[in-house]
Amino acid sequence: INQYNLIWIKIMNLVIIIPTFKEEDNIKILIEKINNQLKRVYIIIVDDSPENNIKNIIKEFNNCKYIYRGKKLGRGSAVILGMKEALKNFKECTIIEMDADLSHDPEELKGKLKIFNENNCDLLISSRYMSGSKILNWSYKRKIFSFLSNKLAKFLLKVPITDYTNGYRVYSSKAVKHVAENCGKIGDGFIILSEILVELYYNKFNLLEITTVFKNRIRGESSVNLKEIIHSLFGLYKIYKLKKKLEKAWIL
Question: What is the per-residue pLDDT across 215-227, written as a single tens digit (0 to 9) for each?
Protein backbone atom coordinates (compact mmCIF):
# COMPACT_ATOMS: atom_id res chain seq x y z
CA ILE A 1 0.00 0.00 0.00
CA ASN A 2 1.50 3.36 -0.97
CA GLN A 3 1.66 6.41 1.27
CA TYR A 4 -1.00 8.33 -0.69
CA ASN A 5 -3.56 5.56 -0.24
CA LEU A 6 -2.71 5.20 3.44
CA ILE A 7 -3.35 8.93 4.02
CA TRP A 8 -6.67 8.64 2.15
CA ILE A 9 -7.71 5.63 4.24
CA LYS A 10 -6.82 7.39 7.50
CA ILE A 11 -9.70 9.80 6.90
CA MET A 12 -12.01 6.97 7.98
CA ASN A 13 -9.71 5.53 10.70
CA LEU A 14 -11.15 2.07 10.18
CA VAL A 15 -9.00 -1.08 10.22
CA ILE A 16 -9.97 -4.71 9.65
CA ILE A 17 -7.64 -7.47 10.86
CA ILE A 18 -7.91 -10.86 9.17
CA PRO A 19 -5.85 -13.80 10.49
CA THR A 20 -5.32 -16.42 7.78
CA PHE A 21 -4.14 -20.01 7.48
CA LYS A 22 -4.42 -21.69 4.07
CA GLU A 23 -7.25 -19.38 2.96
CA GLU A 24 -6.24 -18.95 -0.69
CA ASP A 25 -9.74 -19.98 -1.82
CA ASN A 26 -11.53 -17.37 0.27
CA ILE A 27 -9.38 -14.29 0.83
CA LYS A 28 -9.97 -12.50 -2.48
CA ILE A 29 -13.73 -13.00 -2.24
CA LEU A 30 -13.71 -11.66 1.32
CA ILE A 31 -11.70 -8.52 0.47
CA GLU A 32 -13.95 -7.75 -2.49
CA LYS A 33 -17.03 -8.07 -0.26
CA ILE A 34 -15.47 -5.82 2.40
CA ASN A 35 -14.51 -3.17 -0.17
CA ASN A 36 -18.04 -3.24 -1.58
CA GLN A 37 -19.40 -2.42 1.89
CA LEU A 38 -16.80 0.05 3.13
CA LYS A 39 -15.15 2.60 0.86
CA ARG A 40 -12.31 3.66 3.17
CA VAL A 41 -10.84 0.79 5.15
CA TYR A 42 -7.32 -0.45 5.87
CA ILE A 43 -7.09 -4.26 5.84
CA ILE A 44 -4.30 -6.05 7.69
CA ILE A 45 -3.82 -9.71 6.79
CA VAL A 46 -1.64 -11.79 9.13
CA ASP A 47 -0.83 -15.03 7.34
CA ASP A 48 0.38 -18.23 9.05
CA SER A 49 0.19 -20.38 5.91
CA PRO A 50 3.15 -22.61 4.96
CA GLU A 51 3.56 -20.59 1.73
CA ASN A 52 2.88 -16.91 1.01
CA ASN A 53 0.53 -17.48 -1.95
CA ILE A 54 -1.97 -15.01 -0.48
CA LYS A 55 0.50 -12.17 -1.04
CA ASN A 56 0.14 -12.58 -4.82
CA ILE A 57 -3.62 -13.09 -4.63
CA ILE A 58 -4.22 -9.75 -2.89
CA LYS A 59 -1.67 -7.59 -4.73
CA GLU A 60 -4.41 -6.01 -6.86
CA PHE A 61 -5.92 -4.35 -3.77
CA ASN A 62 -4.40 -1.01 -2.74
CA ASN A 63 -5.77 -0.99 0.81
CA CYS A 64 -4.17 -4.18 2.16
CA LYS A 65 -1.16 -4.70 4.40
CA TYR A 66 0.24 -8.25 4.24
CA ILE A 67 2.21 -9.74 7.14
CA TYR A 68 3.63 -13.22 6.57
CA ARG A 69 4.71 -15.32 9.56
CA GLY A 70 5.48 -18.58 7.74
CA LYS A 71 4.23 -21.03 10.35
CA LYS A 72 1.10 -21.64 12.40
CA LEU A 73 1.55 -19.40 15.43
CA GLY A 74 -2.17 -19.09 16.17
CA ARG A 75 -5.20 -16.95 15.44
CA GLY A 76 -5.05 -15.00 18.68
CA SER A 77 -1.44 -13.86 18.34
CA ALA A 78 -2.14 -12.98 14.70
CA VAL A 79 -4.93 -10.59 15.76
CA ILE A 80 -2.77 -8.99 18.46
CA LEU A 81 0.07 -8.53 15.96
CA GLY A 82 -2.43 -6.90 13.61
CA MET A 83 -3.55 -4.58 16.41
CA LYS A 84 0.02 -3.51 17.10
CA GLU A 85 0.56 -2.86 13.41
CA ALA A 86 -2.60 -0.72 13.29
CA LEU A 87 -1.45 1.31 16.29
CA LYS A 88 1.77 2.15 14.44
CA ASN A 89 -0.19 3.84 11.65
CA PHE A 90 -3.29 5.19 13.42
CA LYS A 91 -3.33 7.22 16.63
CA GLU A 92 -7.08 6.67 16.87
CA CYS A 93 -9.04 4.05 14.94
CA THR A 94 -11.87 1.56 15.12
CA ILE A 95 -10.64 -1.99 14.61
CA ILE A 96 -12.65 -4.98 13.42
CA GLU A 97 -11.44 -8.56 13.56
CA MET A 98 -13.02 -11.22 11.39
CA ASP A 99 -12.23 -14.67 10.03
CA ALA A 100 -10.99 -15.29 6.50
CA ASP A 101 -13.24 -18.30 5.78
CA LEU A 102 -16.38 -16.25 4.94
CA SER A 103 -18.16 -17.38 8.10
CA HIS A 104 -18.44 -13.71 9.10
CA ASP A 105 -20.66 -11.83 6.67
CA PRO A 106 -19.24 -8.48 5.46
CA GLU A 107 -22.79 -7.29 4.80
CA GLU A 108 -23.18 -6.95 8.58
CA LEU A 109 -20.30 -4.45 8.82
CA LYS A 110 -22.25 -1.21 8.35
CA GLY A 111 -24.91 -2.19 10.86
CA LYS A 112 -22.31 -3.20 13.42
CA LEU A 113 -20.42 0.06 13.07
CA LYS A 114 -23.64 2.05 13.45
CA ILE A 115 -24.55 0.27 16.70
CA PHE A 116 -20.94 0.46 17.92
CA ASN A 117 -20.86 4.25 17.49
CA GLU A 118 -24.39 4.90 18.78
CA ASN A 119 -23.67 3.02 22.01
CA ASN A 120 -20.15 4.37 22.55
CA CYS A 121 -18.83 0.82 22.74
CA ASP A 122 -15.31 -0.34 23.48
CA LEU A 123 -16.10 -3.84 22.26
CA LEU A 124 -19.02 -5.03 20.16
CA ILE A 125 -19.33 -8.81 20.01
CA SER A 126 -21.20 -10.73 17.33
CA SER A 127 -22.98 -13.41 19.33
CA ARG A 128 -24.11 -16.66 17.74
CA TYR A 129 -26.19 -17.42 20.84
CA MET A 130 -28.44 -14.38 21.16
CA SER A 131 -32.09 -14.71 20.27
CA GLY A 132 -32.33 -13.91 16.56
CA SER A 133 -28.87 -15.17 15.67
CA LYS A 134 -28.30 -18.18 13.39
CA ILE A 135 -25.59 -20.80 12.86
CA LEU A 136 -25.72 -22.28 9.37
CA ASN A 137 -24.23 -25.56 8.10
CA TRP A 138 -22.58 -26.71 11.32
CA SER A 139 -22.87 -30.36 12.36
CA TYR A 140 -24.82 -31.09 15.55
CA LYS A 141 -21.55 -32.26 17.14
CA ARG A 142 -19.86 -28.91 16.42
CA LYS A 143 -22.90 -26.93 17.61
CA ILE A 144 -23.10 -28.86 20.87
CA PHE A 145 -19.37 -28.56 21.57
CA SER A 146 -19.35 -24.81 20.88
CA PHE A 147 -22.48 -24.22 22.96
CA LEU A 148 -21.12 -26.17 25.94
CA SER A 149 -17.72 -24.48 25.68
CA ASN A 150 -19.36 -21.06 25.88
CA LYS A 151 -21.54 -22.15 28.81
CA LEU A 152 -18.43 -23.36 30.66
CA ALA A 153 -16.62 -20.10 29.93
CA LYS A 154 -19.55 -18.05 31.20
CA PHE A 155 -19.83 -20.18 34.35
CA LEU A 156 -16.15 -19.68 35.18
CA LEU A 157 -15.50 -16.15 33.96
CA LYS A 158 -18.81 -14.40 34.74
CA VAL A 159 -18.64 -11.90 31.90
CA PRO A 160 -22.31 -11.12 31.06
CA ILE A 161 -22.26 -12.06 27.39
CA THR A 162 -23.31 -15.24 25.57
CA ASP A 163 -20.52 -15.84 23.02
CA TYR A 164 -16.93 -16.00 24.24
CA THR A 165 -15.37 -17.58 21.14
CA ASN A 166 -16.70 -15.84 18.03
CA GLY A 167 -13.99 -13.68 16.47
CA TYR A 168 -16.24 -11.17 14.69
CA ARG A 169 -15.72 -8.10 16.88
CA VAL A 170 -15.39 -4.32 16.80
CA TYR A 171 -12.94 -2.52 19.12
CA SER A 172 -12.34 1.08 20.14
CA SER A 173 -8.80 2.51 20.09
CA LYS A 174 -8.78 2.51 23.87
CA ALA A 175 -9.69 -1.18 23.98
CA VAL A 176 -7.11 -2.08 21.32
CA LYS A 177 -4.33 -0.36 23.24
CA HIS A 178 -5.29 -2.26 26.39
CA VAL A 179 -5.46 -5.59 24.55
CA ALA A 180 -2.13 -5.03 22.78
CA GLU A 181 -0.42 -4.29 26.09
CA ASN A 182 -2.05 -6.91 28.31
CA CYS A 183 -3.33 -9.90 26.32
CA GLY A 184 -1.70 -12.89 24.65
CA LYS A 185 0.28 -14.06 27.68
CA ILE A 186 -1.94 -16.99 28.67
CA GLY A 187 -2.39 -19.00 25.49
CA ASP A 188 -3.29 -18.71 21.86
CA GLY A 189 -5.99 -19.66 19.42
CA PHE A 190 -9.54 -19.03 20.55
CA ILE A 191 -8.50 -18.76 24.20
CA ILE A 192 -7.30 -15.20 23.55
CA LEU A 193 -10.86 -14.23 22.66
CA SER A 194 -11.97 -15.15 26.19
CA GLU A 195 -8.91 -13.53 27.73
CA ILE A 196 -9.75 -10.27 25.95
CA LEU A 197 -13.30 -10.35 27.32
CA VAL A 198 -12.07 -10.79 30.89
CA GLU A 199 -9.43 -8.07 30.56
CA LEU A 200 -11.86 -5.53 29.13
CA TYR A 201 -14.88 -6.34 31.30
CA TYR A 202 -13.04 -6.35 34.62
CA ASN A 203 -11.24 -3.13 33.66
CA LYS A 204 -14.65 -1.48 33.12
CA PHE A 205 -14.67 -1.15 29.35
CA ASN A 206 -18.07 -0.91 27.67
CA LEU A 207 -19.04 -4.29 26.15
CA LEU A 208 -22.13 -4.99 24.03
CA GLU A 209 -23.47 -7.96 22.04
CA ILE A 210 -25.30 -7.99 18.72
CA THR A 211 -26.99 -10.73 16.73
CA THR A 212 -25.23 -12.33 13.78
CA VAL A 213 -25.57 -15.02 11.13
CA PHE A 214 -22.60 -17.39 11.29
CA LYS A 215 -22.04 -19.47 8.15
CA ASN A 216 -19.77 -22.50 8.22
CA ARG A 217 -17.06 -22.43 5.58
CA ILE A 218 -17.77 -23.93 2.16
CA ARG A 219 -14.16 -23.69 0.88
CA GLY A 220 -10.94 -24.82 2.53
CA GLU A 221 -10.41 -26.71 5.78
CA SER A 222 -10.93 -25.69 9.38
CA SER A 223 -7.74 -25.11 11.38
CA VAL A 224 -9.43 -26.18 14.64
CA ASN A 225 -8.18 -29.55 15.91
CA LEU A 226 -8.27 -31.69 19.05
CA LYS A 227 -4.90 -30.38 20.23
CA GLU A 228 -6.19 -26.79 20.08
CA ILE A 229 -9.34 -27.75 21.97
CA ILE A 230 -7.39 -29.40 24.81
CA HIS A 231 -4.98 -26.45 24.91
CA SER A 232 -7.95 -24.08 25.14
CA LEU A 233 -9.38 -25.92 28.15
CA PHE A 234 -6.09 -25.49 30.02
CA GLY A 235 -6.04 -21.86 28.94
CA LEU A 236 -9.54 -21.36 30.28
CA TYR A 237 -8.34 -22.36 33.74
CA LYS A 238 -5.52 -19.79 33.52
CA ILE A 239 -8.03 -17.10 32.50
CA TYR A 240 -10.19 -18.08 35.48
CA LYS A 241 -7.22 -17.30 37.75
CA LEU A 242 -6.72 -13.98 35.92
CA LYS A 243 -10.42 -13.22 36.40
CA LYS A 244 -10.15 -13.82 40.16
CA LYS A 245 -7.22 -11.41 40.35
CA LEU A 246 -8.96 -8.69 38.33
CA GLU A 247 -12.24 -9.22 40.16
CA LYS A 248 -10.53 -8.71 43.51
CA ALA A 249 -8.95 -5.45 42.31
CA TRP A 250 -12.35 -4.36 40.89
CA ILE A 251 -14.09 -4.91 44.26
CA LEU A 252 -11.36 -3.05 46.13
Answer: 986 655 555 555 6
56-59: long-range pairs with CB below 8 Å, 24+: 57/24, 57/27, 57/28, 58/27, 58/28, 58/31
101: DSSP letter: S
Calpha distance 171→160 (Å, rounded): 17
Backbone φ and ψ of 62, nearest 5°: -95, 10
Interatomic CA distance for residues 117 and 57, integer angstroms = 33
Which residue type does 152 have? L
**Residue 167 Cα to chain centre, angstroms:** 4
pTM exceeds 0.70 for this model: yes
Strand pairing class (134-136; 213-215): parallel
Phi-psi region of 165 (alpha: psi -120 to 50; beta: other; left: phi over 0): alpha
207 with 123: CB under 8 angstroms? yes
